[in-house]
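Handout, page 2. Input:
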Amino acid sequence: MESDEEIESAEEEQRLHHDACQANPATYADHDLLHDLAANLDNPQVGAYMLCESKGVGLQKPNGQLDIDTIRSKISLTVTDTAKVDKLIKECAIPKNSPEKTAIHLFSVLRQGTVSPTSTNSKV
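Output:
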């Protein structure tokens, strides 16, 4: 597990990207829609926001491809068990039909596993 300073830095980075994505009309998404990602997999508003957020924190590259090394690094901020990190990556880092759907799936699975790659709320 990383230091509290590294976790706080990741959380601040996520907040900045969240604010930037929400400030852009092309990537804005209603917060109510973001609370149930699995139910909004096909919602273009949610997809645009989640891709913006995912690219912003480095989970997806500018071309939309998953960045497995960054995903591993971010999950490892809050998950100490290497086997659990590997399991989460296998479950969440799955390319879907579009970069937007990939981003939604990625965050949805991490949330289901009670892990946020940029939050201290779920140390495992």
